[in-house]
Amino acid sequence: MYNLVSFAGIFILMAFAWLLSTDRKVVNWRVIIWGTALQLLLALFIFMVPAGSKVFLFINDAVVRVLDSASAGVRFLFGRLALPPGTKNEMGEESLGFILAFQALPTIIFFASLMGILYYVGLMPRLIKIFSRMFTRLMRISGAESLSVSSNIFVGVEANMTVLPYLGKMTRSEFCTILAAGMSTTASNVLALYVFILQKDFPTIAGHLVSASVLSAIAAVVMSKLIMPETERPETLGLNIMPYYRKESSVMEAIITNAHEGLKMVAGIVALLLAFLGLVALVDFLIGGAGAGLNSLTGIQIDWTLKGISGYLCYPFALIIGVPPSDAFEIAKIIGERAVLTEVKSYQDLSLLLSTGGLKEPRSAVLAAYALNGFAHFASLAIFVGGTAALAPKRSGDISSVGLRALAAATLACLMTAAVAGTFFTGGSILFGQ
């Protein structure tokens, strides 16, 4: 029954996006039909076809093994502080528990360097071109959009560098699409962080996050074109274009340059968490007192925290994507929390729910993992809008004006991805084992 709910949820979410449209009379049916079909076919291959399951598990194991390699440098630098919970080092010293700063965040630097190597040897550009050509041909969107969306499957805000020569002439609809794709997908270097947080309680999480990033890229195109349909003619419509990027002079330079970029990303994540967690705690304190008084007067117990309020707002969407009612409010809270506190805190709370038995159905954790996959939050909105505007300063007004709509499209795209996964969920599948 819940699989059918998830399937219906795909179309309900698209209808909601259409209600937010800047022009409801303009609907690109080719994008909607092919975008939805691609997601369903990809999910069917991964979750239901034996060959697809093998590919999924291979990717999951590969990411986990690479993550194990990444921890070598972390253990050398931080010693006992870097030991995952329940493990010991060569000297017999036990872990001090999970410490985000010493165990998970440093892996971002390793993965950033690894991606630099893959770019240098030409593997990443080839993969990006394959996805880009598929999106351009099937969904008939502009080559610049396709290239940026495809890049976002593998990297973060720097994906728009691949279309730098075309940014100045993009339409507002194109800007909405590339911003939505950036905020609805997960950069490969940050993906390692989420795997580290969830792997103990969700062994196949790495494969799910990789598939979610691909699905969300396609969903972002669908949702953005519903919310801000194309009313102009893009310069690269239907054209296959080559990615623009600066290649380092040597593999060593690629490692060093990207390690430094990874360090900047770690610093940015730390700064955001420190600022937003503190501010949210302050807001919770201010509204909590007033809320407690209202609870006493009315006799109705309401959670007057930002997480609780966001949970009430997101509760219908949790049900729409197919989360069982018994877990819907808990999942709604962490989905809503992501908009304010970033996906890092939400994945941590999902891990806590799994480890403490806070969820009654395995299905709930799987759908939450897909729904949270991406940078769809206000802090990320500032980063992506600011980063893209810096590349095309003459278009900063247009880029800023579509930002909130792109965030809405990204949020709905992540929910759509969860609904697609929920459509094919089977409790007995090894892909969904926990």
Question: Could you characterize what this model shows?
Answer:
Helix content is 71%, strand content 0%. The chain has 434 residues and is mainly alpha-helical. The protein has one domain. It is globular, with a radius of gyration of 21 Å. The mean pLDDT is 85.
Order of helices and strands: HHHHHHHHHHHHHHHHHH
What would you call the shape?
Answer: globular
Helix/strand/pairing category = mainly alpha
Distance between the termini: 21 Å
Main sheet summary: none
* Uncertain stretches of 5 or more adjacent residues: none
Mean pLDDT: 85
Helix run count: 18
- Tally of domains: 1
User: What value does the Rg take, in angstroms?
Assistant: 21 Å
Q: Count every beta strand, where a strand is a DSSP E run of 2 or more residues.
A: 0
* Helical content class: over 70%
How much of the polypeptide forms β-strand, as a percent range? under 5%
Oligomer: single chain
